[in-house]
Each structure stands twice: as C-alpha cells, then as structure tokens.
C-alpha cells in the first residue's frame, strides 16, 4: 500500500476506558488497591514494605508475631470502612472487633486488648454513633477482649462516609505454637471451617437492594474459641488464615506462594450454601472470591487431620467444617481446583475485589 493510500487508525483514548478489573499500571489509587488481591499485594510490596523496612513487617501475615521481654505476642491492626454501617448479621462495630480478634487468632493468640479509633464525618447522627459503639462493646465482651484505649477524630462533611473505625490488638501466643505459611508441606490436609461467601453476599444484598428469596446474614464472628479447640488437639498446626477480602481464593494463593507448595481443592467439597450459590450465579460472581468474616482455613499435618476436624465440628463455629483439599508437590505456588466433571482449573489470585467496601 502506498503512503498516500495508507489507512491511518487514530490511537484509542485510554482515559475513556472503564473496566470492572482495573488495569494494574495505575498512576493513582483505585478501589482495586484495597481489595485484598494482587493490586493490594503490589501496593504493600512496592510502596509500604520498602518504605517501612524491618524483618517483622516482612512476615506479611494476618498479624505479626513479636517478642517483648521474652514473651511472644501477636500484634495486628485493621481499618473498617464497610458500607452500609449495619447489615444482616452485624455492623461495622462487630467487624471492628471480630476482624482484629480473628487476625490475632490466626497466629494462635487469644486477643487480650484492643485499641479503637473512630473517624466520624460531620453530620452523622449521634444516635448512629451510639449504636455502633454499643455493637462494638458487645462484640468485645463476647470475644473476651478489653478495649483499653482509643481516639476520635471528626472530618468535614463530604470527606468521609459516616463512620470509619481502626482497631489494633495484642494477644499472647502460647508456647509451642508456630503458625505461618512457610511450614506448609506436601501432604498437609486443607480444612475450611464452614460455608463460604456469606458475608460478601449479605453486604451486597442490602447495599444493592437485592432479594434472593431468603435473607442472607453475615457470618461475622470471633474465631478465638474455635482456634483454641483446634490447638487443644495439637499445637502442630501449620497455618491458619481467615479468608476475608479476596475470599478463599486469595487466602489459598497467598499460602501457596509463601510455602512454595501447590494446593489442590476438590471444587464439589467447598461448602457453598444454596443462597450464596444462587446469588453468585445471578450476579456472575465466583463464591471462591467472595469475602468471609467468620471462617478460617487450616493446613494440618495429615496425622492430626481427623482429630482436628472432629474438634472443629464439636465447636459451634466449626460445626460445618470439612476437608476440601491438600498441599502437593506439583505446580508450586499455584492453586488448582478439580471440578465435578473431572477437569481442573487454576484458581488465580484476584486482581482486586468483586465487591469493595465489605469490611
């Protein structure tokens, strides 16, 4: 084709594009950076970790295990920006306690003290603040943890979303307990404590005004007692995680990457309640990526798996616990699901979050 007749196609205007999974090369923060998936991990690895430094931070677990005066402590912090503030089965106050208590429990620690910071938007009703505070205090009493210190700030109207909460917590790690993904080895049995995807769908139902034929309540709960029941069987659990943002898929991918093992799950064994499955089918979501707030996953040495599973099922928060897979030598760092039809599919780390602002 001659130069005079060459077809010239204008370059596309990328700034006008939209995408539910935002492009990873972003000059500005987008919602996907807070979703607990690959974009969140990149933000931590390339911005925060190099800036802060330190060996303790490099653990990148749900909580950090630290030594102070010869005592091993778990230390964690979390911020809660859920919308709406109240939802079936809980509120931002419940989440603020249970989220941090559960992060500590994943290190084997029982939470002892919490700090609590409230960021209030100018104009929010004082009665709403009171309801949230009451819910937070009630959740703390149920979890057996004391709110020992706190702070309050107010931002101008339009610069917040009613109420944001930050909680930090500390707890004592029992002697002989060493829970971290690097301990996972091929042959470990993978157990989930119950139905997945419930919290995310509960939030979605009220936020978007959707009805699925039955009310779905969040599974928000403090998991310290369940973890204690598991550790009473054996202190030789390898790793625990609560699959919150990014769901079960994100938690398993993080463990596989840190341990250098492969993970195989039996898709039909993953407990997804019918209401969650139906909601996800309607909305085109995968329950594996939907957030939970009262579930845990555990990699347990095979010789202890039956006893640990029995102990979990004897606890109210683990009554539906089930084995869903194992760690393997093949495909290190990768999570694979075996489907009901006999095939396999890769369960990737999500880029962002299917539903933002769920915790």
UniProtKB/TrEMBL annotation:
InterPro entries: HypE, PurM-like_C_dom, PurM-like_C_sf, PurM-like_N, PurM-like_N_sf
One Pfam family it belongs to: AIRS
CDD domains (alphabetical): HypE
SUPFAM superfamilies (alphabetical): PurM C-terminal domain-like (SSF56042), PurM N-terminal domain-like (SSF55326)
Domain (PurM-like N-terminal) ranges: 62-173
PurM-like C-terminal domain sequence ranges: 186-331
Top-level taxon: Bacteria
NCBIfam families per the UniProt record, alphabetical: hypE
Family according to the record: Belongs to the HypE family.
Protein name: Hydrogenase expression/formation protein HypE
Gene: hypE
């Amino acid at each position: 084709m001659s130069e005079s007749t060459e077809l010239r196609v204008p370059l596309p205007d990328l700034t006008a594009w939209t995408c539910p999974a935002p492009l990873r090369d972003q000059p500005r923060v987008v919602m996907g950076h807070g979703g607990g998936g690959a974009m969140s991990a990149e933000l931590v690895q390339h911005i925060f970790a190099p800036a802060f430094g330190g060996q303790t931070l490099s653990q990148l677990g749900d909580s950090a295990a630290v030594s102070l005066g010869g005592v091993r402590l778990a230390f964690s912090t979390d911020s809660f920006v859920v919308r709406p503030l109240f939802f079936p089965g809980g509120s931002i106050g419940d989440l603020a306690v249970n989220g941090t208590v559960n992060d500590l429990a994943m290190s084997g620690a029982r939470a002892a003290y919490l700090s609590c910071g409230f960021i209030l938007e100018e104009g929010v009703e004082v009665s709403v603040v009171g309801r949230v505070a009451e819910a937070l205090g009630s959740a703390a009493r149920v979890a057996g943890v004391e709110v020992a210190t706190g702070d309050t700030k107010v931002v101008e109207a339009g610069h917040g979303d009613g109420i944001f909460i930050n909680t930090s917590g500390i707890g004592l790690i029992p002697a002989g307990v060493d829970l971290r993904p690097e301990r996972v080895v091929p042959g470990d049995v993978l157990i989930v404590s119950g139905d997945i995807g419930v919290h995310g769908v509960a939030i979605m139902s009220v936020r978007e005004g959707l009805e699925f034929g039955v009310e779905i309540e969040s599974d928000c709960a403090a998991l310290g007692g369940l973890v204690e029941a598991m550790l009473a069987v054996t202190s030789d659990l390898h790793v625990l995680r609560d699959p919150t943002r990014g769901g079960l898929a994100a938690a398993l991918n993080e463990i596989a990457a840190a341990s250098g093992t492969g993970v195989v799950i039996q898709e039909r064994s993953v407990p997804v309640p019918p209401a969650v499955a139906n909601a996800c089918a309607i909305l085109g979501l995968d329950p594996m990526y939907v957030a939970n707030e009262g579930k845990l996953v555990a990699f347990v040495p095979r010789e202890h798996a039956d006893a640990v599973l029995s102990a979990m099922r004897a606890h109210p928060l683990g009554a539906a616990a089930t084995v869903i897979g194992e760690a393997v030598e093949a495909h290190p760092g990768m999570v694979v699901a075996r489907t009901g039809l006999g095939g396999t599919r890769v369960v990737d780390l999500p880029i962002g979050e299917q539903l933002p602002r769920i915790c």
